[in-house]
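quick one: uridine-5'-diphosphate bound model?
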Amino acid sequence: MKTVELLGTKFISSPMEAFVQELNRRLISGQQTFVVTANPEIMMYTYKDPNYAQVLKHADYIIPDGIGVVMASKILKKPIESRLPGFDLMMHLLELATEKNYSVYFLGAKEEVIVKAVKQAAIQFPKLKIAGYHHGYIDFNDTSIIEEIRSKSPDIVLVGLGFPQQEMWIQNNRHVMEKGVFMGVGGSFDVLAG
Ligand code: UDP
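yep, here:
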């Protein structure tokens, strides 16, 4: 995958379709994958919190979520090919999962929001294999949710705890799982819930 380096971070510079196919290749080969959707707010935060900066170093792909990143890339004369909004990527992953029979776990948002979001996902993709879901107001030291997700062995885990928690959660817990694409989706469940 082509990347563009901006202020020390390598962003994916690719059209959405090609990036989704890249994730599909990783799913087929069973490689675990950590995707971060980054906007300028997230990039600035890495300067404040070295722990978070460290977590981002473990990401397999950092995608340019906000238009601000794409604009900055143009100003710095290292243009990123296209913006990859986190919400759009999440919807493309749901479509891919439906086509290829990959199971998806949804973690995050308020209880009523995640229930609605999962319902919406099932309406839009009736054949989607939903491994499970849980709201995001969890005790980060409580391992029962991680155990639940592990036992369901999902192919894709969407984590909407907001940044920086969602990336911290992914990096702290993904080693427990054998496989999976893990992606921080921010407030996307709220959008999907409508
Ligand atoms: N959230 C959560 N647990 C928390 C804090 C936040 O599940 O402890 C959820 C919140 O309900 C919302 C999302 O995380 O669905 C954060 O959305 P926001 O737009 O604030 O995050 P960003 O897109 O800026 O990362």
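The chain has a mean pLDDT of 96.
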